[in-house]
Amino acid sequence: MALTATIYKAELQVSDMDRHYYATHALTLARHPSETEERLMVRLLAFALHADERLEFGKGLSDEDEPALWRKAYTGEIEQWIELGQPDEARIRKACNRAQQVVVLNYGGRAADVWWDKNASTLARHRNLTVLDLAADTVGELAAISERSLRLQCLIQDGQLQLLGDNASIAVEPRARMTASA
Q: How far is residue 26's CA from residue 48's CA, in Å, rounded to a whole number?
């Protein structure tokens, strides 16, 4: 018998002072049976960091041709492709060829460092790629607040994110390993 996805509902209020974006999003996240709570919450965090009316969750783990999140233009072109964790270089190359902007939200503690050390020189060729790191303790804090029904407020200012829930406040400061060229 195949395992099915677990559905999570989140009401995410985003106040992004850096981009002047203010909106409330009612989100439905399907947690794949092989997905950890950490990855699920990093997906939600990635949505908050890049919130837009056209940003949507991709099939991610269950489809190699789709990212964790993406934003498409009304014409169907991929404007932004967002990957999580440590994707292989071939997947990133494919994303950079298909999308205007690619973001990798790297997490996983020591594994994230090893991945970066292995791929940094190859990834430097991609002018439309940004790689951000999340601290392992931050990801642990995110997983700790995971519930099937969430109400969160997200305040972003000067590149720092404050995530406020009913019983928690988490400060997130993504560290840029690499930023896209203008």
A: 12
Q: How distant is the alpha carbon of residue 150 from its chain centre?
A: 17
Residue 48 resides in a domain: yes
Q: Coil, helix or strand for 22?
A: strand
In a domain, 2, yes or no: no
The structure's pTM equals 0.94
Q: Is residue 14 part of a domain?
A: no
For 86, counting Cβ atoms within 10 Å of its Cβ (0-12 exposed, 13-18 middle, 19+ buried), the class is middle
For 73, how many CA atoms within 13 A lie in the half-sphere containing its CB?
Answer: 9
Digit-coded pLDDT (tens) for 95-117: 999 999 999 999 988 999 999 99
CATH number of the domain enclosing 51: 3.10.640.10
Contacts of 19-24 with C-beta under 8 Å, sequence gap 24+, read: 19/156, 21/51, 21/52, 23/51, 23/53
**Count of the separate structural domains present in the chain:** 1
Cα(30)–Cα(40) distance, rounded to whole angstroms? 9
Model pLDDT for residues 9-47, shown as the tens digit of each residue: 999 999 999 999 999 999 999 998 888 999 999 999 999
